[in-house]
Amino acid sequence: MRLSRASRWVLGALSVLILAVIYLPLAVVGVNSFNTNRNMVWPPPGFTLDWWGKAFHSLGLWDAVLTSVEVAIVSTAVALVLGTLVAMALSRYKFFGRQVVSLLVVLPIALPGVVTGIALNNAFRTIIGVQLTIGTVIVAHATFCVVTVYNNVMARLSRVNPNLTDASADLGAGLWTTFRLVTFPQLRSALFAGGLLAFGLSFDEIIVTTFTAGNGTVTLPIWILQNMFRPGQAPVVNVVAVVLVVISSVPIYLAQRLSAVQE
To answer: What pLDDT does residue 159 have?
Structure first.
């Protein structure tokens, strides 16, 4: 289908407008990370690297970063195992309620974060009766990280020839041998892409984390929220926000490239 010259101009203008609405605020945050004014007046009266130095030497910030990395790594590992097992079971076997199980697996990422957070908070504190710790944060993050792994693995399994696993079984290979030598090599890039997306989601998650983190458990997004309105901390928060955008963009970019290669 060929578009008229006027249609191309309209679509181009709308695209530029949408991208500006999305990315101009991020650009302002980036500029403010170098703003000499502590109150972030605009336009900046000057530029400095002092805030980057203060952020680099902030012990509380580094503790929050390490906590976020720890939570993201563990929750991603849990999601890789559970998401792969569920995807393989639902793709290989036909049984009553299969579509319902698939819906329940995907549902956590579609629910509002506030609803998920309240539900998990009630489950941990009221039903199970455990204290909120870093462990509850990991479990909470794994609930929606599973979805990214599950979707990637299911998409890949739909393009895998099932006769390969049957042939492996006919040749005498067990379940583990078949998975290690036949299934896993075909899923490797999908698992890597799903793991990267899961890590990115977990690393900058704040809503569910707020409801499931106990006292003393401070992830990077929570640290940003706590320091955003403290006197003199706004410039440092802008620095952290810039770094967080860069860190979050890397796994998403790599996952996108892997998905493109898979196609």
So the answer is: 75
